[in-house]
Amino acid sequence: MVELIIFDLDGTLVDSCEDIKQALNYCLEKIGISGFSTEEVKRMVGEGVNRLIEKALKARGVNLPSNELIDCFVNYYREHMTDFSKAYPEVKETLEQLKGFKKAVVSNKLTELSVKTLENLGLLNYIDFVAGSDFFSERKPSSVPIIETIKKFNTTQDKTIIVGDSELDIMAGRSAGVKTVAVTYGYRGKELLKDADFVIDKFSDLLKIVRKL
């Protein structure tokens, strides 16, 4: 019997790639570095802003201190985080139908930005707890955020599932001892999702899994 559902945010509940791309490219182009396409950014997101900037600089063969770029990204993104972002199809309706379950968002995005994204897109009131990369001592793919969230809700691994779009979510879930659900419509190719316990093509398919468990 499932009591707690832990969701990833970007690529799972929300398609935010365009806004992430805009913020990244704004900051890179300001210092004369060419930007990236949406598809390229999709492949780089998932590990938090620091890693995103590191990967972008590496891809362009540039060796620069990343702190100023990180600050630039966070400041720009904070002002424009939902210019283009939207909830994926069926997310709101499905969360509505999951009212009887405890629901958490555990993201590698900063907590403040995760909360604001959910709030701006009308999803925050469906979620009981939000934790970003700065909330726990480690971030996904570590099991720490998952285990700490389970403790917070005073439940157990066998009554928890994690839903995400990347191998990071699957690794975090598996090492925490919880069932994993991968969504195929997010930012990672299907080949990276093969270790998940369940794979779904649309968000509403989650209802069947939760009922089955």
Notable characteristics:
single chain; 213 residues; alpha/beta; Rossmann fold; DNA polymerase, domain 1; 2 domains; 6-stranded parallel beta sheet; two-stranded antiparallel sheet; 9 helices; 8 strands; 42% helix; globular
Draw up the topology in text.
Layout: E1 4-7, E2 14-15, H1 17-30, H2 38-44, H3 49-59, H4 67-80, E3 86-87, H5 91-97, E4 102-106, H6 111-120, E5 129-131, H7 144-152, E6 160-164, H8 167-176, E7 179-183, E8 198-200, H9 206-212
Parallel strand pairs: 1-4, 1-6, 4-5, 6-7, 7-8
Antiparallel strand pairs: 2-3
Describe the structure.
The chain has helices at 17-30, 38-44, 49-59, 67-80, 91-97, 111-120, 144-152, 167-176, 206-212, and strands spanning 4-7, 14-15, 86-87, 102-106, 129-131, 160-164, 179-183, 198-200. By secondary structure, the chain is an alpha/beta fold. Strand 6, helix 8 and strand 7 form a beta-alpha-beta unit. The radius of gyration is 17 Å and the shape is globular. The model has no long low-confidence stretch (mean pLDDT 97). It catalyses: 2-phosphoglycolate + H2O = glycolate + phosphate.
